[in-house]
Write a structure and sequence with these properties.
506 residues; mainly alpha; two-stranded antiparallel ribbon; transmembrane helix; transmembrane; membrane; DUF112_TM; DUF112 domain-containing protein
Length: 506
């Protein structure tokens, strides 16, 4: 499918219409707002606004949804950086180093880095969507149950790097996350397991309430404990300095941004993976290739850049299989698929031929949304950063209220609020005892994918599981990546020790 220059010029003219421009601004501002609020995600925003688009022209409607999708992923980083409350699951990795930068007075730089890296990742993903959609979609189409199982295992290798030196505690937290992911109806037999007769558990533990509890409520409890009994409260550190990283820092970030952009696009092409998986994978790869991996989780700007570049690079990547094959690459694009059908648009070859002016308008609209998102984000950075200066005694009730509202509105169920509270207590106890809460979230995300892929592989292999896996080229490729992921930390440590030994001898 070759891109016609004349067609692109006509699409740009179409995007210049007042209604499309208005929807572009509304989508970007609304998406940032939705993403920044705990529990409110791009998926929720798109689902709520699809009925609003019924009376719109297809281009204006889909540009609105695409703008919300891109900017909501970025918006989640704002609260993750400033108050350690990821607005979306894709921003959980951002909170690891972004919040630590805020604590040492570099919140403004963290926001600027997040904004620029998000824009770069988004633009790279749109270029991939525009030029590489058909071949990348064909590759992802050839992935089946064995590949998805191995991808999940590859993601689980990250848990070891999240343990901050306490490997046993990290693996224990990951094991707990895997056990939690098993709650619900068995994927093969449809029999309830670990539900204890509670009907609400048959659909499993909802990720967003669990994540809000682990990160937001536990943070409130930790901070409240510090405030209790204190006579003189230490004011929030004044956030001063530059909005942009220095030239030396940008030189360090170039490789991380490039690598994370590619990871985000590729993960986005895989149905069901999403920005949360991409951000953790990119974060882990940045840590593995870093000269100072011990700084990660303590305010390392490379970790922040890796997570933010990758989760925004997923947006265009997830739309590749959506537009060419009708296979959504994420939960948000699954909702967008409904929006396409509502406006009479059928994904596939016809969308790129008969309705080419619409599909390319969506793609270019996503590009414009990423650029506008960067402009708005940088323009508001100095105002948004003031959130970190608000006394925590005022901020804590607001966080709790937003967390309760966000958890409730997912399924309009009080049970999700109870889940949030339970995971808040769990997160508090884990953080007090040195366990990695992020490992639970990652294992919950990947556990279901691993189980479905493995159990389907058992059926497909007809008793010869190893032979079945070794006969699949893509499975062998992912196995090699898993082996490399397990061996590379040992090799890096060996090289570091050898270099230190050589220096000591000299």
């Amino acid at each position: 499918m070759q891109v016609d220059t004349t067609l692109l010029l006509s699409v740009l003219a179409q995007l210049a219409s007042p209604d499309v421009i208005l929807m572009l601004f509304v989508g970007v501002l609304g998406g940032i707002f939705l993403g920044a609020l705990p529990g409110l995600s791009a998926t929720m925003g798109i689902a709520l606004l699809i009925p609003v688009t019924f009376g719109m022209q297809p281009v204006a409607a889909m540009v609105l949804l695409a703008a919300i999708y891109a900017s909501a992923v970025y918006g989640g980083s704002i609260t993750a950086i400033l108050i350690h409350t990821p607005g979306t699951p894709a921003s959980a990795a951002t909170a690891m180093d972004g919040y630590q930068m805020t604590l040492r007075g570099e919140g403004l730089k963290a926001l600027g880095t997040s904004t620029i890296c998000s824009v770069i990742g988004g633009i790279v993903s749109v270029v991939a969507l525009l030029l590489l959609a058909p071949p990348l979609a064909q590759i992802s189409l050839r992935f089946s149950a064995p590949e998805y199982f191995l991808i999940a295992i590859f993601g689980l290798t990250i848990i070891g790097s999240l343990s901050s030196g306490a490997m046993v505690k990290g693996l224990s937290a990951g094991l707990l996350g895997l056990l939690i992911s098993l709650v619900g109806v068995d994927v093969m037999t449809a029999y309830p397991r670990f539900t204890f007769g509670v009907g609400e558990l048959e659909s499993g533990i909802s990720l967003i309430p669990a994540m809000i509890g682990l990160f937001s409520i536990s943070q409130v409890m930790i901070q409240a404990e510090k405030l209790h009994g204190a006579k003189d409260l230490t004011p929030a550190p004044e956030l001063v300095g530059h909005l942009f990283p220095s030239r030396a820092e940008w030189r360090r970030l170039r490789g991380t941004i490039s690598r994370s952009s590619i990871i985000g696009v590729l993960v986005g092409c895989l149905p069901g993976a999403g920005g949360d998986v991409a951000s953790w994978v990119a974060y882990n790869e940045a840590k593995r290739s870093s000269k100072n991996p011990e700084n990660y989780g303590k305010g390392e700007i490379e970790g922040l850049a890796a997570a933010e570049t990758a989760n925004n690079a997923v947006t265009g990547g997830a739309m590749i299989p959506l537009l060419t094959l009708g296979i959504p690459g994420s939960a948000a694009t699954a909702v967008m698929l409904g929006g396409l059908y509502i406006h009479g648009l059928q994904p596939g070859h016809e969308l790129f031929t008969v309705n080419a002016h619409i599909v390319y308008a969506i793609i270019v609209g996503l590009l414009l949304a990423n650029i506008l998102m960067g402009i708005v984000g940088l323009a508001l950075a100095k105002q948004v950063v003031k959130v970190a200066s608000v006394p925590f005694a005022i901020l804590a009730p607001i966080i709790v209220v937003l967390s309760v509202v966000g958890s409730y509105t997912i399924n309009n169920s009080m049970f999700d609020v109870y889940v949030m509270v339970a995971f808040g207590l769990l997160g508090y106890l884990m953080r007090k005892t040195g366990f990695a809460t992020a490992a639970i979230v990652l294992a919950m995300i990947l556990g279901a994918m691993a189980e479905i892929g493995f159990r389907q592989s058992l059926v497909m292999s007809k008793g010869n599981l190893l032979g079945y896996y070794f006969d699949r080229p893509f499975s062998l490729l992912i196995m090699g990546l898993i082996l490399l992921a397990l061996v590379s930390p040992l090799l890096i440590r060996w090289k570091r020790n050898r270099a230190q030994h050589a220096l000591s001898r000299s």
